Target: Fatty-acid amide hydrolase 2
Amino acid sequence: MTKNLRQFTKSLVRIIHGFVELFVHYFFKFVYSGSGQQMPPIKDLLLLESATSIAHKIRTKKITSVQVLESFIDRIKEVNPILNCVVADRFEEARKEARAIDELIRSGTVPEDALAKEKPFLGVPFTTKDCIAVKGMIHTSGLVKRRNNIAEEDADAIACLKAAGAYPIALTNVSELCMWWESANNLHGRSSNPYNTNHIVGGSSGGEGCLQGAAGSAFGIGSDIGGSIRMPSFFNGVFGHKPSKFIVSNNGQYPIPITTEQTSFLGIGPMSRHAEDLLPLLKIIAGKKAPELRLDEPVDIKKLKFYYQENDMGAVCVSPVSPEIKGLLGKISVHLEKAHGIKAKKVGFQRFRKSAPIWFANMKTPNGPTFQEQLANLQGSINPYLELLKWIFRTSEHTFIGIITALADKGGCKYGDEKHTYLVEERGKLRREIEELLGDDGVFLYPTHPTAAPFHNEPLVKPFNFSYTAIINVLGFPATHIPMGLNSEGLPIGIQVVANTKNDRLCLAVARELERAFGGWVPPVVEA
Model:
C-alpha cells in the first residue's frame, strides 16, 4: 500500500468513526434523556475534609475515629443504592478497630508527636477496589468464577496503610478482570457517576473513583495498568496518582502481572478528594522504596519547566479532545505566567498517535496465560465464540466486552514478530524523547481523557480513548490526574501531569498548586 493510499484510508476511517461516534452519542443522549438520579446532598461537613486533616483531628482528640467511621458508613449507605460502587463491607470489624484506636488515644500512652510520626493516618477509614487483597474479604476482580474467593492476606499496600494506623471499611467495584474502562461486571453489576448517573465512572478503579467523588470514604487505593486510576479520577472529579514503575509493590493485586514488563506498567496508588493527601499516602504505600522518590524534598513551582500537548496528534479511532478540556491547558498557562512568571511551552510528540498500538504491543507476553484462560480463573480456558452465543441469550457469566477482549487478544501483533519489535522500539524512542525534554525539573501536561464521562455503554464505539493514559504506563513515568471543575454539562474534567521516573514529587506539587488555583474537587451536592 502506498503512503498516499494509507493516508487516504486513515482519513476515511477517521471520518466514518467520527460520524458513528456522533450518532451513538446523540442516540444515548436521547435514551438517557434527563439528568439521572439525584444524589443525596452532603450534610455532614466532616465528609468534606482531607484524610490528613481528619487524622490530625483524631490524634489531637478533636474528633474520634468512631465518629469519622460512622459518618462514612452513613454516607455509603446513602449513596450506594444509587451508585452501586461498594460491593462488600466490613463495617462491624471496622467499628471494633475504631473503638480500640480511640481507647489508645484517650489513654495517652503514646505521645501525640509519636503517633503523628509512626502512625500518620491513625483512625482514618479507607476503601479499595475489589482486585486488591484485604484479608478476610472477597477478592474477585469482578469475575463470577471468583465470587467465593476470600483473600488470605493483605496486599502489601494495604498492610502498609494498616501499619500507618488506617483501616479498610469496604471494597469497590471494578470492570471484569480490570480490563475495561467502564466498571461493570456480571457479579456486582454496573456503577454510576455521582455527577450524573446516566454516565460511566471509568475503570477499572471506577467504583473507587465514584465513591471518592461522592465523599464516601476518607481516601481510596486503586491500581493502574492503562489508566485505571487516572480515568476514574477524571470521570469522578478527584485526584489520582499512578506512581513511577517498580516503586509500590503489586503483591496482592489480581490479575497478577505476567512479565516484568507488565509489572512495570502496573501501579498501585492513592485516590483522594484533596491533593494534600497524595504525597503522605504514596510515602506510606511505597514502603522501603519511598526514599527513592525524595518525597521530603521541597518543590519550588517557580523553578519547574512546564510543557504541554493538547492532543495525541490525530490517532485513528480516538475521539478528538473536547474544546473545554483543551481550554484547561490555556487556563493553566495563563495562571503559571501571572502567578509565577512561567512560560509553559507547547510541544508535539508525533509518536503519541501510536499510543494504543504501542500499549497493546508492549502488553504482549511470550507465554500465557491468555485472556481466555484468565476469564476461566486459570482453570482451563473459555470458548469465546460459545460465550458470545450465550451472551446473546443472557446466559454467559461474562460481559460482552470481556468476551470481545478475549477474541481481540488473539489478533494484533505476536510477541517477537516484526510489528511487535517495531512498536517496542517506538516506545523506547518516545521514552527517550520525553526523558530528555523533562530532565529533573520538567513536567508535562496532557489530557487525561479526550472527553468527559461518556454515557453507559458509549465506550464501545470509542474503545481506544484510554490511550491518553495507557501510553504513560508503558513509558513508566509517574502521573497525577488533577480535577479542574465541571464542564458545561456538569461533568468533571481535568488534566494529568507527568514527570520523569521517580520525580513523583513534581507531579504532586503541581497537583497542589493547581488545586489552590482552580479549586480541585467539586462536591456533587452540598446542603446549604
